[in-house]
């Protein structure tokens, strides 16, 4: 194929030589501020990442993922140039060629099939400026609302619940409320692993205030339960019944804030009527699968405590009844008037760094920018007038799951996917494969060249990654922070907003997309937020509903063509920022009515965004999950994140620090269920659902209820042979929000029989076609492979050698006598050890043996870090174990300081340690991000039981 190297006209500037850059972490919704410093330490790619002490979100703290960001910098896996793909062949092309092809194809498709035949699928990984331009282009100029986002998969139920209750998508409180509360309820959130920095703030608050009551409501016993006073392991999907029962309890025990409810709400009677179905707490406890004593303790504590904050996350949102779950929680806060005040309120915790920013610009298919609605003709007209667009979408677009169903059905002919990997992350993920395989035209913008999704692209566009792109993100407490570039763009990578704008210009929309810098986009975004927004008429929100109606009437009389409404989302104070002011923008929580004056809490005056200014109680009825367990599928699959990985590992998978804690996918289940289904701990098993299959190793952690299994979401076809959990997840969605049911899919399990298991390390990627099962993880100097096969035991030598020589470079080293070949085999025992050495440095090795005889992985990894191995090391390689009295640190517990389980256990036993702080003082574990503290506490408890 042709190789064209031609740098386009760029919108980047060459970055200066500043030694320090303040930016924002690209992982979860906490939105931590990070300082990136240049360093000469090559192990961190010449950069060091630390938390910013003065940033309001993290106050200097970082989790291990944030601390390891420097390890993800580089071009190893990057997509660096535009490409065309066809018939398995890839051709590098000019940007102008790629943009022309996209514009011409979109234009022809719309002319032939209409605007709704094209679609975009974008991501909470985008910056707000990228998100804004994409939505403006699609909804205001192409004239379709077929643009949805992977945020549909994590927080759209929260959006829908907020809008039903408050009239607008509002998170009322801020992180400080967790430190001011007297009771914190964590619902469907493994906060300790998924939002570690916020969890550490909560843990510190509890340490300072022992009376702070923490309740965890989650089917699993997670690390978050480490600080829980009450854990309610409710049955999956019963949240609505639980909170309806709480609402009825509050009503029966006189906990209503009568003044607040009368003055500021509507709809209580219907909500109470529905909640009355769960008046019998004994029956409710049985329905939810929790102990009656603990259920009543929770209800009593909630009723008696004024300062209650309820954090909810994916376990609530990712459900076929997710929106109702959200409203059942909000109902309890409205009933008690616990909203808009310090230390109290419902709090939606988002999963992505800019899920909130996407909501601000109308990133979902049923929204318009600036918290306006597609199905509201007044707001639709307002946005169109502001954009001066030729047309505007008039109907809601297709939500994520139905969007890809429309692609497979042929109703959508062209799709542009940005910064997300739907072939892995969507439910019924094999359907997404079929859809993209059959789609006439697929464009993918990404930073990674090879993902499960890029394989289906006709056009691949190289995007900027963290450290290169420039713009803003908004975290879960409405705090807008800058992501600043400190790296020059690699290859020909460009901003997503630039690529969209170039296509828009080629389609005839030149003036509307003539952006030269993200500051111009942010200014337009800010001006739209204030445009005909009633809240712009005052510098405070102390406006009653009656006063608001009078203001609207007065404005309408003076200018009958103008229709104002009230929206809390307002960046009036940030309109007109110069490029320099934008570059220096400090973290601010919206609304921002006056320059650089953010708002920590909203709803403080109990003025809601419904036209009458009142909140709505929503009557919600408990419905069991759509798909129930059956004889064929007797177990319920739950999915979620693990501590040290993120989404589909395209970024965290590059960081060796993050690969050791949980290096392979797993199926966690109750030991009695494992026994019932003939499954052994640490052996492989296959899960089946109606939609797909998965193979992973089984663990019985003791954290699972009977009848339920858990699998992490992160592994892909790039990192495992068969571990895409999305392939199993049922495609049922919430009827209001369109969010899928990731927490409850009926499955069955069976042993995955293999003849041999092994582990390999290699500096070169191996071809694993001969293995029946494999997973891959990055270590500091090599790739680690866990392997299993179905070939006969007495042929392991043949297959082990073939696997090790599967990379051409390794094979040539051996065949040309440029390498030493070390080998040991025992056919009768099914043991095979082999290694390739060049100039006393190990290049690759493989060990096949019964699982209990496989070597320590950390020891093998340490050999690859050495520039030269001794003769003793060479003998140890063949033996498969270090010679002499080398200590086995055990499985990694603390990723920050590389401290293993055995090291911690030995310290606890030898020195009589009884607290995590004592462990930290002794071996450092737990002394940085604190994510491993729950595991340390468990190890201490284990030792206490032994003694």
From TrEMBL:
Keywords: 4Fe-4S, Iron, Iron-sulfur, Metal-binding, Molybdenum, Nitrate assimilation, Oxidoreductase. GO terms for molecular function: 4 iron, 4 sulfur cluster binding; metal ion binding; molybdopterin cofactor binding; oxidoreductase activity. SUPFAM superfamilies: ADC-like (SSF50692), Formate dehydrogenase/DMSO reductase, domains 1-3 (SSF53706). The keyword Cytoplasm does not apply. It comes from the Bacteria. Residues 18-77 form the 4Fe-4S Mo/W bis-MGD-type domain. The keyword tRNA-binding does not apply. It holds the Pfam family Fer2_BFD. GO terms for cellular component: membrane; oxidoreductase complex. InterPro entries: Asp_de-COase-like_dom_sf (IPR009010), BFD-like_2Fe2S-bd_dom (IPR007419), BFD-like_2Fe2S-bd_dom_sf (IPR041854), CT_Nitrate-R-NapA-like (IPR041957), MoPterin_dinucl-bd_dom (IPR006657), Mopterin_OxRdtase (IPR006656), Mopterin_OxRdtase_4Fe-4S_dom (IPR006963), MopterinOxRdtase_cofactor_BS (IPR027467). One of its GO terms (biological process) is cellular respiration. Its cofactor is [4Fe-4S] cluster; Mo-bis(molybdopterin guanine dinucleotide). Belongs to the prokaryotic molybdopterin-containing oxidoreductase family. NasA/NapA/NarB subfamily. This is Nitrate reductase. It comes from Alkanindiges illinoisensis. The lineage of its organism: Bacteria, Pseudomonadati, Pseudomonadota, Gammaproteobacteria, Moraxellales.
């Amino acid at each position: 194929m042709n190789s064209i190297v031609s740098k386009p006209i760029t919108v980047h500037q060459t970055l200066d030589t500043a030694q320090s850059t303040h930016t924002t972490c690209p992982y979860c919704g906490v939105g931590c501020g990070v300082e990136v410093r240049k360093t000469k330490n090559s192990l961190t790619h010449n950069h060091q990442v630390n938390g910013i002490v003065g940033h309001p979100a993290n106050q200097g703290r970082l989790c291990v993922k944030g601390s390891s960001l420097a390890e993800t910098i580089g071009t190893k896996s990057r997509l660096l140039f535009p490409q065309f793909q066809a018939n398995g062949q890839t051709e590098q092309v000019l940007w102008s060629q790629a943009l022309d092809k996209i514009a011409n194809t979109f234009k022809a498709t719309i002319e032939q099939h209409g605007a709704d035949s094209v679609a975009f699928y974008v991501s909470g990984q985008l910056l707000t400026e990228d998100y804004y331009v994409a939505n403006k282009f699609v909804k205001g100029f192409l004239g379709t609302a077929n643009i949805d986002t992977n945020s549909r998969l994590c927080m759209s139920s929260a959006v829908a619940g907020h809008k039903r209750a408050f009239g607008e998508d509002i998170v009322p409180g801020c992180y400080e409320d967790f430190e001011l509360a007297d009771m914190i309820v964590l619902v469907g959130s493994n906060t300790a692993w998924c939002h570690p920095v916020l969890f550490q703030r909560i843990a510190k608050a509890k340490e300072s205030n022992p009376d702070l009551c923490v309740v965890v409501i989650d089917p699993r016993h997670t690390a978050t339960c480490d600080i829980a006073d009450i854990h309610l392991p409710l049955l999956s999907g019963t949240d609505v019944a639980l909170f309806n029962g709480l609402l009825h309890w509050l009503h029966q025990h006189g906990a209503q804030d009568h003044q607040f409810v009368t003055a500021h709400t509507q709809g209580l009677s219907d909500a109470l009527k529905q909640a009355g179905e769960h008046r019998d707490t004994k029956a409710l406890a049985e329905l939810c699968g929790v102990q009656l004593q603990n259920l009543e303790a929770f209800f009593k504590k909630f009723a008696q405590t004024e300062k209650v904050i309820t954090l909810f996350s994916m376990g609530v949102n990712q459900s076929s009844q997710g929106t109702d779950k959200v409203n059942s929680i909000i109902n309890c806060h409205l009933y008690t008037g616990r909203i808009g005040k310090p230390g109290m309120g419902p709090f939606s915790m988002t999963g992505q760094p800019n899920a909130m920013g996407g909501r601000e610009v109308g990133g979902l298919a049923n929204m318009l920018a600036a918290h306006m609605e597609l199905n509201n003709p007044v707001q639709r007209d307002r946005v169109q007038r502001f954009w001066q667009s030729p047309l505007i979408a008039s109907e809601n677009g297709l939500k994520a799951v139905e969007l890809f169903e429309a692609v497979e059905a042929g109703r959508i002919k062209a799709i542009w996917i940005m910064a997300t990997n739907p072939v892995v992350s969507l439910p019924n993920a094999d359907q997404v494969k079929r859809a993209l395989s059959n789609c006439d035209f697929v464009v993918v913008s990404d930073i990674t060249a090879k993902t499960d999704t890029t394989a289906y692209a006709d056009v691949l566009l190289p995007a900027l990654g963290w450290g290169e792109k420039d713009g803003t993100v908004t975290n879960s407490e409405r705090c807008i922070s800058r992501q600043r570039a400190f790296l020059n763009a690699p290859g020909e990578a460009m901003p997503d907003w630039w690529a969209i704008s170039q296509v828009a210009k080629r389609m005839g929309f030149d003036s509307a997309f003539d952006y030269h810098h993200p500051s111009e986009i942010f200014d337009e975004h800010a001006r739209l937020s204030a445009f005909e927004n009633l809240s712009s008429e005052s510098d405070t929100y102390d406006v009653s509903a009656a006063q608001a109606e009078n203001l609207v009437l007065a404005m309408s009389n003076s200018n009958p063509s103008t229709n104002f409404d009230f929206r809390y989302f307002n960046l009036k104070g940030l309109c007109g920022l110069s490029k320099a002011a934008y570059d220096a923008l400090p973290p601010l929580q919206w609304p921002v009515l006056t320059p650089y004056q953010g708002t920590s809490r909203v709803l403080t005056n109990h003025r809601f965004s419904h036209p009458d200014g009142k909140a709505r109680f929503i009557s919600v009825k408990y419905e069991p999950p759509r798909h129930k367990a059956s004889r064929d599928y007797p177990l319920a699959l739950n999915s979620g994140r693990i501590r040290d990985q993120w989404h589909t590992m395209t970024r965290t998978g590059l960081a060796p620090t993050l690969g050791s804690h949980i290096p392979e996918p797993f199926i966690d289940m109750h030991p009695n269920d494992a026994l019932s289904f003939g499954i052994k701990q640490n052996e492989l098993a296959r899960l089946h659902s109606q939609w797909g299959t998965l193979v992973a190793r089984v663990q019985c952690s003791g954290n699972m209820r009977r009848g339920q299994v858990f699998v992490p979401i992160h592994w892909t076809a790039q990192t495992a042979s068969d571990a895409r959990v999305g392939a199993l997840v049922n495609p049922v969605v919430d009827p209001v929000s369109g969010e899928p049911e990731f927490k409850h899919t009926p499955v069955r399990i069976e042993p995955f029989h293999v003849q041999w298991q092994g582990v390999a390390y290699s500096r070169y990627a191996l071809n694993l076609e001969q293995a029946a099962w494999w997973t891959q993880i990055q270590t500091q100097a090599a790739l680690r492979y866990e392997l299993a096969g179905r070939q006969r035991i007495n042929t392991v030598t043949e297959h082990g050698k073939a696997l090790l020589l599967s990379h051409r470079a390794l094979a040539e080293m051996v065949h040309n006598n440029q390498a030493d070949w070390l080998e040991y085999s025992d056919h009768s025992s099914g043991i095979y050890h082999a290694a390739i050495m060049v100039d006393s440095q190990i290049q690759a090795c493989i060990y096949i043996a019964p699982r209990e005889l496989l070597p320590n992985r950390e020891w093998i990894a340490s050999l690859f870090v050495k520039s030269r191995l001794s003769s003793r090391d060479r003998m140890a390689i063949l033996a498969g174990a270090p010679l002499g009295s080398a200590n086995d640190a055990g499985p990694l517990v603390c990723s920050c300081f590389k401290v293993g389980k055995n090291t911690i256990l030995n310290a606890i036993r030898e020195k009589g340690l009884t607290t995590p702080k004592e462990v930290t003082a002794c071996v450092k574990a737990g002394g940085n991000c604190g994510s491993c503290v729950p595991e340390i506490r468990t190890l201490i408890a284990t030792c206490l039981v032994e003694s």
